[in-house]
Amino acid sequence: MTTSIPSSKFLALLPNIDLMKCSRCSRWAVAEVGWKGRAYCSDHYREYFLGQVRKVMDKFRVGGKVCVAVSGGKDSAACLEALTHFRGIELEAFFLDLGIPRFSRGSLKKVSELCEELGVDLTVVSLKERWGKSIPEILKERKGKACSLCGTVKRYVMNAYSYEGRFDFLATGHTLSDVVSSTLNNLANVYVQAFRGVGPFLEAKEEFKLSRKIKPLYYLTDEECKLYSELLELPFYTGKCPYVSDAPTKRIKAWLNRLERDQPGVLRNFAKSFTLLESSMENRGEILKCKRCGYATTTRICKFCRLMN
Hints:
Layout: H1 8-11, E1 31-33, E2 38-40, H2 42-59, E3 64-69, H3 74-83, E4 89-97, H4 103-118, E5 121-126, H5 127-131, H6 135-141, H7 146-164, E6 169-171, H8 176-188, E7 201-202, E8 213-214, H9 222-231, H10 248-262, H11 266-280, E9 288-289, E10 296-297, H12 303-308
Parallel strand pairs: 3-4, 3-6, 4-5, 6-8
Antiparallel strand pairs: 1-2, 7-8, 9-10
């Protein structure tokens, strides 16, 4: 039986220069999963990837109407494609147009291509048309880090769209790398209130208009999601947001990726520890209703309303 040598664009993702055979068949491997001590060919890597997604889907019984927040990047592309393999769910993709020149247009183009390829309905909401301001306009008016302000806007709008659309779940493309790097950054800034939601699932709170949220990629790293998207040749945007700076979370994530290569499984251990800490915390901060919009906040007026008014 003959086996083909993997494409050179995938060889760079292997941790060792020597070619490896798949742990489950005789074909050449395209990736090594360190924490499992296994190497996989493209077909068995896809099976591994979907298996990690299934862990989340089955544990939290994800079903019904599922809104998938797509950004145009590799992670949300991998998330949306992976969810098309599960029965009992009705998918809809949601894209928030932030009004960032070139970047938003390029992202939307790839999202449209992806949804057409997968046969998934896409809803596009313009921040400027719906709420009167684009991200560039907000940043001109407000002081603060661009990524932080943008994150506030995206979290608010994603939740509002899911809640008002009466979706059973809001699925996001947050990866294991995202969760761990963000939580470590919050700890470094003594921001323990953000411990709410460090796990793969967050229950709805109807009284505060909080939608039920799920992170299907919770057990997968950024690098694993990138490889999955590349193997399937999914459309995703590679352009860089003009407002992205050398944010602390980017440096933390780069360090974590190196640490994971040297000490496989460490990211999973971090995530498990954070989840245990979250469950043991007594004072997580009081949740209030924003006096203007009625959505959840920890202050009288939520940050989104302060940004948009």
